[in-house]
Amino acid sequence: MEKQTKFVEEITSMDVDFAKWYTDIVKKADLIEYSSVRGCMIIRPYGYAIWENIQKNLDKRFKDTGHENVYMPMFIPESLLQKEKDHVEGFAPEVAWVTHGGSEPLAERMCVRPTSETLFCEHYSNIIHSYRDLPKLYNQWCSVVRWEKTTRPFLRSVEFLWQEGHTAHATKQDAIDETIKMLDVYADFCEQELAIPVLKGKKTDKEKFAGAVETYTIESMMHDGKALQAGTSHYFGDGFAKAFDIQYTDKNNQLQYVHQTSWGVSTRLIGAIIMMHGDDNGLVLPPNIAPIQLVVIPVAMNKPGVVEKATEISEKLKSVVSVKMDDSDKSPGWKFSEYEMKGVPLRLEIGPRDIENNQAVLVRRDTREKTIVSLDDLNEQVLNILSEIQSDMLSRAAKLRENNTYNARSFER
Amino acid sequence: MEKQTKFVEEITSMDVDFAKWYTDIVKKADLIEYSSVRGCMIIRPYGYAIWENIQKNLDKRFKDTGHENVYMPMFIPESLLQKEKDHVEGFAPEVAWVTHGGSEPLAERMCVRPTSETLFCEHYSNIIHSYRDLPKLYNQWCSVVRWEKTTRPFLRSVEFLWQEGHTAHATKQDAIDETIKMLDVYADFCEQELAIPVLKGKKTDKEKFAGAVETYTIESMMHDGKALQAGTSHYFGDGFAKAFDIQYTDKNNQLQYVHQTSWGVSTRLIGAIIMMHGDDNGLVLPPNIAPIQLVVIPVAMNKPGVVEKATEISEKLKSVVSVKMDDSDKSPGWKFSEYEMKGVPLRLEIGPRDIENNQAVLVRRDTREKTIVSLDDLNEQVLNILSEIQSDMLSRAAKLRENNTYNARSFER
Hints:
Two copies of one chain form a homodimer.
Chain A: H1 18-28, E1 32-34, E2 41-43, H2 45-64, E3 68-69, E4 75-77, H3 78-81, H4 85-91, E5 96-101, E6 104-112, H5 117-127, E7 136-145, E8 159-169, H6 172-192, E9 199-202, E10 214-221, E11 227-237, H7 239-244, E12 247-249, E13 255-257, E14 259-266, H8 268-277, E15 294-298, H9 306-317, E16 323-325, H10 332-341, E17 346-350, H11 352-356, E18 359-364, E19 370-374, H12 378-403
Parallel strand pairs in A: 3-7, 15-16, 15-17
Antiparallel strand pairs in A: 1-2, 4-6, 5-6, 7-8, 8-14, 9-10, 10-11, 11-14, 12-13, 17-18, 18-19
């Protein structure tokens, strides 16, 4: 039970080399695998399950705020990309160009979408006619491509998964309200589900999204004291509307341009979770987003009744949390390390003596604190501890930021 | 209340021109919109909501049978595509080629995935080492691109959404069992959820998937008496394993090639639903997959208490079915036609006299049968009728096939 060092030896300490520690974790926790496609990653089942949980939670928040999902083409004809001047200048240098279909050269080349403003705008110009058609509150879950030179798993890759919201409104104020509302949805999601406290702010003109009037951002301080942009929400004014001729007839029968927004978060959030909560034993996942919330590890499996009891407990727990039981023939020590590496929030150990005493041992991933609990009220105890872990993770993250925030009155610290 | 002809005039009758009737429906029911991207469609909120329901249901079936979701790159380097000879011959003529990243020509061009066997195989060759690593049961939800010359919404488009399962097994028998199992999952899904009866069969050598030993298919007879392929499941033998060197060490410490399968269904299923169940008034959706299962339409909305009662009923119904209440200022007749066009399975009408009598009128979309029901047991009645609609739709579809099936003993019928 003390062989907790197996994997620990294998990953670089975060204090020695934070970047190396990060890439060690994404590989060892089975989140990604590299592929032979330059700058693209393979998201493995465990990594993808985290993304599915993020998606499910965010998608509900989007629908609760009145948004609908759509799917637009993945290609953008060059002439369409060029319609908004700032936008094309920002994105053209980093797109992948399709020039041939089968053996035929295309009459007009198309890029793989780096973002879909131009497609949504073209669509909006076709379907928005009257004030009755507004607002249009659309969202899309898809993958996008940006031809990045230097890539890092989840943080910056040639292809990544994301969602992009695109909305059109009757008035400037409606669009500004939407921009702020979705920034708030992101901030609340990060804090409540990912246990990542964020600061909201505005980007400088130089850092704004290509084509935006204002770009709002949520940023978070990672374990190495550096900031990571976790999501952005853009107010477009009527710039795209003018470029794409998106007009509607208002109540007074006057033609007006719509006011637009877009907003997005991506698989980069998984990178943020790693860098915010991980430690030298691996990943640490917030319970609200963990694919496995509790792992049951039977100890002394050869003793009669142990596996049966562990199975019984697992089945009972499945009604309240996401459970995995590992009764493989690996050693308990190996399993402890494995699920610590994978960041499973809570571990339940049960052996012959525990069974005798009608109890189990719960070990928190974040603090490694052990609690012995009675099997009689196991479900409630597990729910309580998971909820404690979730809120403690947020507090610790907030404290880290607080401890590393200074009033800068000069260039020295 | 009798103006049910408004939209009816606008769509072509299926007996006059089935193809035109089909494209009328996809547009008028707001399922898709055409885009300026050749052969690519925009899937609108209502169409995408049907796809989300298909996804959710199938994804559960995949997970229940032990499959895990992953995400692979959308690009395939040309040299990787060429590794399996039959496969590249089948797909190379119909792929989109990316030749430039930003302003730089690529050293090696890449295609946008038409299907991902080659990527999965490369990945499997990296992660499969021992018999303990088998089986690998992976699935991917994504979009793929095939450079089709003639396209039709949902049925054949340049880009479409689908899922592709890719599995690797220790033995030939395991792989054959998986191939058949997933064909059965598809068949059961089509019959139970989409109310589409299917015939299972094997493709001829000429029609097999490029690289497969056997291709199994489910085919269904559409309203025009023609067959539509609704899903396929392929047994690969060890052909891909040999081309990609996917070997494992068996229990006797011998190197063995894995045996593989792949299987997929796509947004084409939405096309199948339209052609199987639709009529001259529009779409008819099976309740199990309908984004809106019941629409509440208050009649004589200006009378006191009507909207309030309709709202109260809607709220109650929401606990058991997916409900939309339409209290917009359009006429009841317009609304009747609109939701018939959209294929909403059940319509609830409620007016002042109904309220007086503590009743509501339910109208089935499939048969237009009206039932007057008491408000006291409305929820149960609605559930009963929806379940009846679901099974009646399957029976009618089965009957259509039966009535159009003949023993062919000569070339004359």
